[in-house]
Design goal:
Layout: H1 10-61, E1 68-72, E2 91-95, H2 96-99, H3 107-113, E3 147-153, E4 209-213, H4 236-239, E5 240-243, E6 299-304, E7 309-313, H5 318-325
Length: 354
């Protein structure tokens, strides 16, 4: 006898499809969460390795790099009196990343950057540990940088009232390019070099920020063809992150002047940081870029000078954020909205930024 073969009815197929769709909907967030966790762990490991490099540099040299630095051949030619600076053929400026090369297993690259007089720019390759997997580079093979150093008090802060100086108590990384022959003049050439070290962090290394993520950072160099001819000024926002006072006369804190403020600010008509030299070199107005930012949900990964890596929530109080950036609360320029100086404020506890 022949038996009729019965197939699935339309209703049964729809039920099966609905069940599969429900399972996918339930599993997809878990898969995405697992992927983000893995990317976040890679990002935190990158920050850990960079912090170790900085700590090793400080241990050996008893000093930390600036966000901008000068490299030079001590036997090279100098310009005439009264500056007596090394000529551009025997000197170049570089970021804090370059100064860390000997301490992050990049000795050949460091040697190339310390070779002068050849007339060619040093190499600027892509380095995997300098990018966050959550924010992949716009193009492969370029020297992208996703991490920046604690550069302290913003030059564009309205409470400065024309003060263009840097102060050691306000951060960790400072402008150490004092050679007027290397890069455009930024008005700080005559100011004393602030040579920071771990021993100068009075507030404690576990209470002072060292590194952070930043979506708007460009390269770890000043350019690709010749880093010495770039007309971008030595400024905090290129390789550092900043804080501003939230109160006082003439202060205008916009929505993007905070952690994860406006992640798409560099899409505006003013252009991203790498085009700043087309705006006459005045890039203090672009310091909105210099606040910590990331694609991680709810905050950014940061590293403290003591070596611990934390996830700082974007809803952190701006005053607490500023306190974590100053290295010496007794002398810093930080004040609260009522003008009370940092030295008289209660120092932040762990639960205020976790």
């Amino acid at each position: 006898m022949r038996h009729a073969r019965r197939g699935f009815t339309l209703v049964e197929l729809l039920v099966v499809i609905a069940i599969i769709g429900t399972l996918v909907a339930l599993l997809l967030p878990a898969v995405q969460s697992a992927r983000e966790t893995a990317r976040g762990n890679t990002c935190r490991n990158n920050l850990k390795q960079l912090t170790l490099a900085l700590q090793n540099m400080d241990s050996q040299l008893k000093k930390l790099p600036g966000y901008s630095n000068e490299l030079y051949n001590p036997n090279g030619q100098k310009s005439g009196s009264p500056t007596l600076n090394f000529t551009s053929a025997y000197a170049r400026r570089c970021s804090w990343v370059v100064r860390c090369f000997p301490y992050m297993e990049e000795q050949p690259l460091w040697d190339a950057w310390n070779t002068f007089g050849t007339g060619t720019a040093p190499p600027a390759p892509a380095i995997a540990g300098l990018t966050c997997p959550t924010t992949p580079p716009d193009a492969q093979g370029q020297p992208w940088l996703a991490y920046v150093g604690n550069a302290g008090w913003a030059f564009s802060d309205g409470t400065r009232n024309g003060d263009t100086q840097e102060y050691a108590a306000n951060g960790v990384f400072f402008d150490l390019n004092k050679n007027s022959n290397v890069g455009p003049m930024d008005s700080r050439e005559s100011s004393p070099a602030i040579q920071m070290s771990m021993t100068q962090i009075v507030d404690g290394t576990t209470k002072t920020l060292m590194l952070s993520e930043n979506l708007h950072t460009f390269y770890w160099t000043y350019g690709l063809t010749n880093n010495d001819t770039s007309q971008i000024l030595d400024n905090k926002l290129l390789f550092g992150f900043i804080w501003k006072n939230t109160g006082g006369s003439g202060v205008n804190i916009a929505d993007y002047d905070r952690i994860n403020g406006d992640k798409f600010y560099d899409k505006l008509s003013t252009g991203p940081p790498d085009t700043m030299e087309t705006f006459g070199g005045d890039n203090t107005k672009y310091e909105h870029y210099a606040y910590p930012s990331s694609r991680h949900p709810g905050g950014v990964n940061v590293a403290f000078c003591g070596g611990q890596i934390e996830f700082m929530r974007e809803a952190i109080d701006p005053l607490v954020y500023g306190q974590l950036m100053t290295s010496n609360s007794k002398k810093s320029k930080l004040v609260d909205s009522n003008g009370v100086p940092d030295r008289k404020l209660t120092q932040p506890s762990d639960d205020q930024y976790h």
